[in-house]
Write a structure and sequence with these properties.
239 residues, alpha/beta, Collagenase (Catalytic Domain), 2 domains, five-stranded mixed beta sheet, two-stranded antiparallel sheet, globular
Length: 239
């Protein structure tokens, strides 16, 4: 007897349609993700350019914050390193908003870090100097030209330039000019950034390993090894 119920027919076109449909869905998802990534990049760029990024990543160190005292690791005479401080004021983007009191507090905290090496940081002079946007652009592009045009520059000291921001850098050392710069807005405590840059002036390089080390790049550490202490004290005596 013939069965009147026919077997369901397979439509090859339906199968192909399902595959094409899945590919379209996957392509749509990828397209949406790609547009999201591009949008995020654009927004991040606009935030960076506008300076708003400072409020999310870079912050000012609370003035009430103090570096804990560190016991000296050497049994030797304390060496004094004189600093000349320049508070560079100007426009809101690059000019520092520090007061002299804040600068004193900054150096005092940084000096506590160097106590472990039997080295103390002292301030010889503090100058507040106003600079125009054009002059600040020179500092950003050719810092050597900017620094050499500072009349109060003192070759017998480490010259410390305090500015609003350094374009995403906490601090920088100009070894050939015996000068350093530290930003108001940093990703680490500003006094540790200053202590780190002073370390470069005293012949220390970046280190790998423990983020608790003062000379670890971009970290918030403050420890010095005995080798670093010996090297820094040798350089301090030469100066």
């Amino acid at each position: 007897m013939k069965n009147n119920e026919s077997e369901p027919e397979t439509n090859e076109d339906d199968s192909e349609f399902d595959i094409d449909g899945q590919e379209k869905i996957e392509a749509s998802i990828f397209s949406q993700v790609l547009r999201g990534v591009v949008a995020l990049a654009v927004i991040s760029g606009l935030l960076y350019i506008s300076g708003i990024y400072q409020f999310f990543i870079y912050q000012r160190t609370p003035p009430s914050l103090n570096q804990a005292e560190i016991v000296s690791r050497v049994d030797a005479q304390t060496l004094s390193i004189p600093l000349t401080i320049f508070i560079i004021t100007g426009n809101e983007s690059y000019g520092s908003i520090r007061s002299e009191e804040n600068a004193l507090h900054l150096v005092e905290n940084a000096s506590r870090i160097w106590d472990q090496a039997g080295i103390t940081l002292t301030i010889k002079n503090i100058y507040t100097i106003s600079k125009s946007d054009v002059e600040m652009k020179i500092f950003s592009d050719t810092p050597a030209v900017f620094i050499q045009n500072i009349d109060e520059f003192d070759e017998a000291t480490i010259n410390v330039f305090l500015v609003g921001n350094l374009g995403g850098i906490n601090g920088i050392a100009f070894s050939g000019l015996y000068s350093v710069a530290v930003a108001d807005y940093t990703t680490v405590y500003d006094f540790r950034a200053l202590a780190h840059e002073v370390g470069h002036m005293l012949g220390l390089n970046h280190v790998e390993g423990s983020r608790g080390q003062l000379m670890y790049r971009g970290a918030n550490g403050f420890n010095l090894s005995l080798v670093e202490i010996e090297r820094a004290r040798l350089k301090a005596r030469e100066k």
